[in-house]
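Review this fold:
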Amino acid sequence: MIAPLALSIGGLVLLLVAAEIMIRGAVGGSRILKISPHVIGLTVIAFGTSAPELFVSLKAAMHGHDGIAVGNVVGSNIANILLMIGTVGVIYPFACGDPAIRRDGFALLLSTIVFVILCHTGVIEPWQGITMLGVLVCFLAYCYITDRRNCANDDSIHAKEVDEFDNLPDTMQKAAIYTVIGLVGVVFGARLLVDGAVDVARLLGVSETVIGITMVALGTSMPELATTVVAAVRRHNDVALGNIIGSNIFNTLGILGVVSIVTPITIPAEIMETDLWVMLGVTTVFVTAALGLKTLGRPLAVLFFFSYALFIIDQFVDLTRLITG
């Protein structure tokens, strides 16, 4: 048990450190090339923070571990909302007034509904993955156009995300080295994490889907949690909330889109029974609150935190059976 757990933790640490290095290299290189901060935030940072989920799900699906591949995305989306709002929101409530939050919130809810519909086909085929990626590209293009039209280029949420990164490489050579080393580290980290997670699941006697939704998903969500915490501490609440929404959109459309193009993804029955509906319900409540409230305050944050704790416990212990006796 110790060896698989150590392998998983080692892979996770490598994954997180490598992702941070890769993001800094990519952001630094983009700034040296004088690419707009808005474009960097909309593409480079959004992709970079979702890179752990992408490589883990891709590696898992290519080796027939669809439970980990899909569970990672579903679990990450749930963690991004319940855990991040539940932890960061207790310290600094999230502001919901930015028009971009409303636009992206609607996009997140719509993409989640589309994902739920696709899951009911049983298998996400390559043509569906291409469609998902196409929708994501169209959404990013729409965001770019509307943000440039409605505000100064450096005042958008996506541009502000770049300000959360400091100590970036100052030459193109350093930026390239950072990016390449980070990318290689992410690939190897994903491999170690998936291999370790499969062994842990077998030793614990639980399904790969449960491990994907809990341990793997929580681990791959750490980059989003880190950037959200930094933004919240700096009182950039709109950026913090935008990180959560943008990451979930990338997870749903981008990650599953790419993975299903490489190999069709079979949706595990476990996810269809409960977890998919939990993700849809959590997303609906979150988006409704973000659209209807001025801030996501501490009471809601506490509720989200304990909801996530119960969700994780229920993955290993059937709470419904215990309550009904």
